[in-house]
Design brief:
- The complex is a heterotrimer of chains A (273), B (487) and C (296).
- Chain A is an all-alpha fold.
- Chain A has two domains: 78 residues; 175 residues, MetI-like fold.
- Chain A contains eleven helices and no strands.
- Chain B is of the alpha+beta class.
- Chain B has two domains: 186 residues, Rossmann fold (3-Layer(aba) Sandwich), CATH 3.40.50; 195 residues, no CATH class.
- In chain B, 24% of the residues lie in helices and 26% in strands.
- In chain B, the strands form four sheets. Chain B has a six-stranded mixed β-sheet, with helices on both faces.
- In chain C, a hairpin with a 6-residue loop joins β1 and β2.
- Chain C has a single domain, classed as MetI-like fold.
- The two termini of chain C are 35 Å apart.
- In chain C, strands 1-2 form a two-stranded antiparallel sheet.
- In chain C, α6 packs across α8.
- Classes of the chains: A mainly alpha (273), B alpha+beta (487), C mainly alpha (296).
- At the A-C interface, α1, α3, α4, α5 and α6 of A face α1, α4, α5, α6 and α11 of C.
């Protein structure tokens, strides 16, 4: 490293401390015995027990998981189709409007998305509930899926699809046998992104939900508004743990894969039998 | 204009030889592919302009040209990835304009190879077969056969990223040949390989083409590659065919400055043409003269078969061997066909290089004392005031009175300190010397600032070579060395 | 056939669930509030034929927009949203740039790990990340306890429920959006450029000013827009960390719509917010376009 490495080390240390300390504190205080969240009164897992006995939280969590699963799955299908249409569809009528609509939710304030969807559902006379939240989440998360999938599609060597056609595959077979397996990692990350966004969303869900379909973020928000609560700390810790394990595993797996691929390529170049 | 070079000229009768493969000279041969007035436009841009071309079965046909000349578009139209704006393309007599790519018995080897990264070598080769049959035994048999043909048996279970570039190239070839297509299209098939591997692979490709008897159409921008592998080469420019002919004809008898300049190295001398008398200058019966140009390079071959055609007084007439005949049919015929066969007494050098050898040296000391015979006919080109006109006996008399360009390959031009006894000799100054190891190319400036390149084999050590920068030198070439082009 | 289906399905979905709702917002912003369900008038009645449609359009007006300009609550909310977004974007840049720079200068084998550490919080719940600061910033929170213990202050600082807490919240939650694009441009930068600058007589600092900073401009601009655009319509951060005096348009909109049920005014607020957002969005896209062209 160069002469400025002390500067680099300092900024990295401070930066990561800033990013991780608040969460670390949250995790530590989730094991606090005291109900007063700012005073340490000894180690305890009491709040985890309370959390798992809280029917309301468990119901909300179950609803949230269902909404996230359905909306991310539909969003992945629709988002992949949209990406395919945009990258491979060539010119078609209304393409500009289409690409505008696909990407607009990325920059649209959630408040406006939620508000407009609620107006639609009321206009259609639909009862708000799990269905409407799922529809709303699908619409805004498909934009993210499209971005992820279309960036993979556009770096993808188009002659692979042409080769499949050339060898006698129908366009659908070419997609199923060649395109899909190759873009699969992007489709999976798109799904995960959509799932996380749905789990996380407060604003759109607040607008489009109805009685009996309170999602976890709504529940957390109303609890948190009144101040810090040790139960929420415990819930946050669980969520942070799940995400950390997931992301670390995924990145280790990709890293190992990359190393193996590099080694195999090197061997291949040498033509080792 | 393109077709004139490919087809036999009406005046000259085709001379079919047993075992010589040239269906384009056989009026009865049915072409496998026919482009009939094909035009392809993208908006205002015309990629292919009213193009007509026949390609015959078992041909190894090369489309050669700079990028953007339309060669890739032609190939993609054959594969079915591009639609045709106007005209028709027939494959074995059937119009394939509306046949989608997956229904054509045409396969393509992609420039990027387009190997499916998630499938093994074996599965890649089986991909096309699986689309047409469910018969596992047949698929296995055919895949194994292809693996044997391309010597990939050991790599069948590997994924594309686990093998080398050359092996990937062979997988791509095996995959596209697996379905036994009538026609195989190769898009810059060797572009991704390094030079050495490319040369090896060229021969492998020719070998496989011969073994399978498949018609190959190759797209390339590498003229050496096209010349090496192809039975015929089509030189393209801006969506048109400029010349379609065998590699020797393309090299020896380019039909335009564009082709002459695109293929190999060439010097161009412009001048005004005038017709020369038909009768040759009488020659002494026996005068073993050496034509330095004939020895200078294989490209000087035109002399040899002509000489062999006439019985020589000394009885040492070199009998035309197979190669000589081949050269005659392929090379000389289109060049010299126009000329009435005049008996000549020009004798061949003692050891006439009947087979092209890699550039034998022109020993300067061996420059002949007596000037060689000049056959009659052809053109005289007045290229500089006050200097002797250049003689080109193979020039088309129809060009007399026009401004023409004489195109000469550097290997057919000799360079010496003294005036050589060649048909044409010009004085000049050495401007630059490119030392390439086995040969050196001299850039000589002659009257009017024209640059002529002369090549010499470096048989002597560098210190013994006496020609250097700024030297006054003579360049010389024979009356048949150049090609007269309308300019 | 199939291609048409691939286009048609997402197209129709977006028309129905994105474009139509948005047009409804536009329409309602031109309507009047009414004590009915839905709480606005006029309502389009297609059974009445063309005359009814004409009647419908004649009742639309810009009254709500006029109302917005007359009530300085809204003007203040827009102004303070813009101010907060600008200031917090600048703060994020100030903190994010050195981190991105240090990441790009780190040893290559460390970079994927550093990158993962930057992205990790992004996968964690936004709500939780904002919530984490509530415990830290409150009067009895850890920050105040720490400062009191140090003896820097003798009374707890009022940080939670102020604009400062909002700035901290925005910087914290949007920091990855700033770091990633800057890191991407810095990492791509050819190291020999800096060597060339030094070779030509630049000091390290002036080489940074004259070479590194200009070359990372597209990343800086992209990062700033990625922070600025969502901050402008932010709701969660001002609601949890901001105080009663923190006015942000997202919060006003949320309350106007769900609590006051004044749909026409809320829609008008939304339309204006979008109009304000269009400018940075267009600038952002132009920046991206330029970055792509530079790449080629």
């Amino acid at each position: 490293m160069n002469r400025f490495s002390w500067f680099n080390v300092t900024s990295l240390t401070l930066g990561f401390a800033f990013l991780y300390l608040p969460m670390l504190i949250l995790v530590i205080y989730s094991f606090n015995e005291s109900k007063l969240v700012t005073v340490w009164a000894g180690f305890s897992t009491r709040w985890y027990g309370e959390l798992f006995r809280n029917e309301e939280f468990l119901d909300a969590a179950w609803i949230t998981l269902q909404v996230a699963f359905y909306s991310s799955t539909i969003a992945t299908v629709l988002g992949t189709m949209a990406a395919y249409a945009l990258v491979r569809g060539g010119r078609f009528r209304g393409r500009t409007l289409f690409s505008g609509m696909v990407y607009a939710p990325l920059v649209m304030p959630e408040v406006i998305t939620g508000l407009s969807l609620l107006l639609l559902f009321i206009g259609l006379g639909m009862a708000t509930g799990m269905l409407t939240v799922t529809l709303a989440h699908t619409t805004f998360s498909m934009a993210y899926v499209s971005v992820v999938v279309s960036s993979r599609l556009s770096t993808f060597d188009r002659s692979l699809e042409e080769a499949a056609l050339d060898l006698g595959a129908s366009p659908f077979e070419a997609f199923r046998l060649v395109t899909l397996p190759i873009i699969a990692p992007a489709v999976i990350s798109g799904w995960l992104l959509a799932f996380t966004l749905s789990l996380d969303d407060l604003v759109i869900a607040s607008f489009t939900t109805g009685p009996g379909a309170t999602t976890l973020p709504i529940k957390v928000f109303s609890a948190v508004r009144l101040g810090v609560s040790p139960e929420i700390n415990a819930l946050s810790t669980i969520l942070i743990a799940i995400v950390t394990v997931g992301v670390v595993t995924a990145s280790l797996a990709t890293k190992r894969q990359a190393i193996r691929q590099a080694r195999e390529e090197k061997m291949g170049e040498r033509g080792v039998a | 204009m393109a077709e004139t070079a490919a087809k036999p000229k009406p005046k000259a009768k085709p001379m079919p030889h047993e075992g010589v493969f040239e269906p384009w000279n056989d009026p009865n041969a049915k072409p496998l592919i026919e482009f009939r007035n094909v035009t392809k436009r993208y908006g205002d841009f015309t990629a292919i302009d009213d193009l007509t071309l026949n390609i015959y079965e078992k041909e190894f046909f090369a489309l050669l040209g700079p990028s953007g000349c339309g060669k890739t578009t032609m190939m993609r139209m054959l594969a079915g990835f591009e639609s045709i704006t106007q005209g028709r393309i027939l494959l074995a007599g059937r119009d394939i304009g509306d046949v989608p790519p997956n229904k054509r018995s045409v396969n393509m080897m992609f420039q990027s190879y387009a190997l499916f990264p998630h499938l093994s070598v074996w599965e890649n080769i089986a991909f096309g077969l699986r689309r047409e049959t469910k018969d596992a035994a047949r698929i296995t048999e055919r895949v194994e056969e292809m693996l044997r043909l391309t010597r990939l048996e050991k790599f069948a279970r590997r994924k594309p990223h686990q093998i080398s570039g050359g092996q990937r190239q062979r997988v791509a070839l095996a995959r596209s040949l697996a379905k036994a297509p009538k026609l195989l299209l190769l898009d810059e098939p060797l572009g991704a390989l390094d030079k050495k591997l490319r040369e090896e692979t060229q021969f492998e490709l020719m070998d496989i083409q011969e073994k399978t008897g498949t018609t190959f159409v190759i797209v390339t921008h590498d003229q050496e590659e096209a010349m090496t592998v192809a039975s015929r080469v089509a030189v393209m420019d801006e969506g048109r065919l400029v010349q379609v002919a065998t590699p020797p004809v393309i090299y020896e008898a380019p039909n335009s400055i564009y082709v002459a300049d695109f293929i190999g190295d060439v010097s161009l001398i412009q001048g005004k043409a005038s017709a020369r008398p038909e009768t040759p200058v009488p020659a002494p019966p026996v005068s073993p003269t050496e034509d330095p140009a004939a020895k200078a390079a294989p490209a000087a071959m035109p002399e040899v078969p002509v000489a062999s055609a006439a019985p020589l007084p000394d009885g040492r007439a070199p009998a035309p061997n197979v190669m000589g005949e081949w050269l005659h049919d392929k090379v000389l015929f289109p060049i010299l066909g126009r000329r009435p066969p005049t008996p000549k007494a020009l004798s061949a050098p003692d050891k006439a290089p009947a087979v092209p050898e890699p550039a034998p040296a022109p020993p300067e000391s061996g420059t002949p004392e007596s000037p060689p015979e000049l056959p009659g006919g052809g053109l005289a080109i007045h290229w500089a005031d006050g200097l002797d006109p250049l003689v080109a006996v193979n020039g088309d008399p129809a060009l007399a009175g026009r401004t023409v360009t004489l195109a000469i390959r550097p290997e057919k031009v000799t360079i010496s300190r003294d005036k050589p006894a060649t048909d044409n000799a010009i004085e000049g100054t050495v401007i630059d010397i490119a030392y390439l190891g086995n040969i050196s190319t001299y850039h000589v400036e002659i009257a009017g600032g024209v640059m002529v390149k002369a090549q010499m084999t470096n048989t002597r050590r560098i210190a013994k070579r006496d020609i250097t920068w700024d030297d006054a030198v003579w360049i010389g070439f024979s009356a048949t060395a150049g090609v007269v082009l309308d300019a | 056939m199939r291609k048409a289906l691939v286009i048609a399905v997402p197209y129709l979905w977006l028309l129905a669930l994105f474009l139509v709702p948005f047009l409804m917002v536009l329409k309602i912003s031109l309507s009047d509030v009414a004590l009915s369900i839905p709480p606005y008038t006029p309502q389009l009645d297609l059974t009445g034929g063309l005359a009814a449609i004409g009647e419908f359009f004649s009742q639309l007006d810009l009254e709500n927009f006029v109302f917005l300009t007359s009530d300085d609550l809204y003007i203040k909310a827009y102004a303070s949203s813009l101010t907060i977004a600008v200031i917090s974007t600048f703060l994020t840049l100030l903190i994010g740039y050195p981190i991105a720079y240090a990441m790009a200068r780190a040893a290559p084998e460390w970079r994927p790990t550093l990158l993962m550490l930057i992205i990790l919080p992004f996968w964690t719940s936004f709500l939780i990340r904002v919530y984490a600061w509530m415990g830290i910033l409150s009067n009895t929170g850890l920050l105040n306890q720490f400062l009191l213990w140090l003896g820097v202050i003798s009374e707890p600082l009022e940080i939670l429920n102020t604009n400062i807490a909002v700035y901290i919240g925005v910087v914290y939650t949007y920091l990855p959006f700033m770091i990633l694009p800057i890191y991407a441009t810095l990492e791509r930068m050819d190291g020999s450029l800096l060597e060339a600058a030094e070779d030509l007589g630049c000091s390290r600092l002036s080489a940074f000013w004259l070479v590194t900073l200009p070359l990372s401009k597209t990343g800086i601009v992209a990062g700033c827009f990625l922070v600025f655009i969502p901050t402008l319509g932010e709701f969660v951060i001002p609601s949890l960390l901001g105080g009663s005096q923190t006015l942000m348009i997202g919060k006003v909109l949320f309350e106007e719509f769900l609590n006051n049920r004044d749909w026409p005014v809320a829609s008008a607020v939304a339309v204006i917010l979008l109009l304000i957002l269009i400018i940075p969005i267009i600038l952002f896209q132009r920046n991206e376009q330029r970055a792509r062209e530079l790449d080629q």
